[in-house]
Amino acid sequence: MAWTREEMAAQAARELQDGFYANLGIGIPTLVANYIPEGMHVTLQSENGMLGMGPFPYPGEEDPDLINAGKQTITELPTSSYFSSADSFAMIRGGHIDLSVLGAMEVSEDGDIANWTIPGKVVKGMGGAMDLVAGVKRVIVVMEHSNKAGESKILKRCTLPLTGAGCIDMVITDLAKFTLERGKSGFRLVELAPGVSLDEVKAKTQAKFA
């Protein structure tokens, strides 16, 4: 049985460490906040100028002035702080964020990631992904293993415009978890989802892996 979105997020949360400053992308990565181990202190940072985000609000308690970079309503903590987006990106570009969890449309065996646009389709903006993959110490991609057409999203070479090159350290899909050493080509399979066979992963993965 493949991992659910929540289980994929829980797998990513296992990579967090006490004292980390982390940035979570929209979609499945947002769910990582729900699986931070009890007793572990992790500070979440948002590109739109917030450090120390609280959990999602209960229905009816939303504050439209409190949103994350994905325009989702959030809550604040007693330790939350606010600043300009320029300061926020200075944190990212300056290497002060320990871990970023992002979604992706494609990744390559060279560690490239494409997650900001599909040519010919309207996009709201590229967001902060290009800065995150360039400035954050460790980048984890969480995504479905195949696209809607059933084609592999883990490729030899990305076909979509790149967000960053040679910048990802781990990929977690609904089928498996892979690691990648920066500067080297080729994934290493480190864990299979329960009930998923190695042959199935091989059949559904275009990129090479050990």
Quick one: biggest sheet?
9 strands, mixed
Distance between the termini: 22 Å
The poorly predicted ranges are none
Rg, Cα atoms, Å: 17 Å
Count the helices. How many? 4
Structure description:
With 210 residues, this protein is of the alpha/beta class. 15% of the residues lie in helices and 22% in strands. The chain is built from 4 helices and 12 strands, in the order αββββαβββαβββββα. β11 and β12 form a beta hairpin. The two termini are 22 Å apart.
Task: Using brief descriptors, characterize the structure shown.
nine-stranded mixed sheet; alpha/beta; 210 residues; three-stranded mixed sheet; single chain; globular; 22% strand
Structure at a glance:
By secondary structure, the protein is an alpha/beta fold.
Secondary-structure map:
Elements: H1 5-13, E1 21-24, E2 43-46, E3 50-53, E4 76-82, H2 85-93, E5 99-102, E6 106-108, E7 113-114, H3 129-135, E8 138-142, E9 154-155, E10 170-172, E11 176-179, E12 188-192, H4 198-203
Parallel strand pairs: 1-2, 1-5, 5-8, 6-9, 8-10
Antiparallel strand pairs: 2-3, 3-4, 6-7, 10-11, 11-12
